[in-house]
Amino acid sequence: MSRIGGRPAISTQHVYGLTLRIARWREGAPGTPLLFLNGIGADIAAAAPLLAQMHGREVWTLDMPGVGASPDALLPYAAPTMAAVVMEIAGRFGHTALDIAGFSWGGALAQQIAIQFPGRVRRLVLMATTPSVGAPGIGWAALLDDDMLASGLKLPTATPLGLAYQSMAMAGWTSAPMLPRLKDVPVLVLMGERDGVVPACHGQAIADLIDGAVLEVVPGSHLFPFTHAATVAARVSAFLDQPPVLQAAA
To answer: What is the DSSP letter of 247?
Structure first.
C-alpha cells in the first residue's frame, strides 16, 4: 500500500451501495473543514503532498469508486449522485458547511456540489477545471502532462472500470447555465499557464459566469496543485482565511 503523507486518519464509509476510502488530516480542527476532490483516477496518496500542507484546518478527501482502495461501483453513476454521496459523508462527519477545493474532474464535481447544495459551501476553489465536459475522457491527457512526466508522479491509480465510470459521470456535463447562482459564494479559480489538458480559457469561462470570482493563472501545467504543492497550499489557505465580505447596505 502506498504511504500517505501527513498521517491522515483513514476510514471507510458505506454510502448508497458504494464503499469509499476516506482520509482526514487534522481531524476535528476548529473552523470550516476543507473537502478536496481529486482528478480522474487519482487517489488519496496523490493528493497527500498538497493536503498535508493545508495547516490550521481539517482537510479530507476520498478515493472515488474504483480508485485507490475504493472498490468498483456495481453500476455507473452520474455527477448529481456522487455529489449527494459526498455530502452524505460530510453530514456524517458533522460538517454542515464546507469549503471545497476541486482539481480537474474533481473541480467539475465541486461545481456540481455547490450548485446542488446551496448554503452548504462557504468558499470554493476550482483548479485546472472546466464548466463543460464535451465528451468522456477528461483527465486522460494528464498521463502526458509535462510536469507529471518530470516529477515521476504515478497517475492514475484506478481500475479500468473505475476510470470508465468516472469518465461517463461527466460526459456531456455542464455547469454553465447554473454558475451565475454562485454569486454569493467566494470563488478562486486557479489555472496552469502551461496546461495542455484544460487550458486557462476554461477557467476564464468559469470566472466570467460567477460574479466576483477571482481567476489566477499560475506556474505549471495540468498537475500544478501537486508539482507546486507548497505554493498552491499557501494560496488556497490565504483565500480560505480571508474575512467574509460584508454586503453593502441597500
So the answer is: P
Residues 6+ apart with CB under 8 A from 130: 107, 108, 138, 198, 202, 205, 206
User: pLDDT tens for residues 33-81?
Assistant: 999 999 998 999 989 999 999 999 999 999 999 999 999 999 999 999 9
| Cα 77–chain centre separation | 17
Model confidence, pTM? 0.91
Cell of 174: 455542464
Cα distances from 196 to residues 75, 84, 144, 220, in angstroms, run 32, 31, 9, 10
Q: State the cell numbers at 204.
A: 476564464
Q: Please tell me the distance from the alpha carbon of residue 215 to that of residue 244, in angstroms, as a whole number.
A: 18
Cis peptide before 186 (omega within 30 of 0): no
Chain segment 84-102, per-residue pLDDT in tens? 999 999 999 999 999 999 9
In the Cβ-directed half-sphere of 159, how many Cα atoms lie within 13 Å? 14
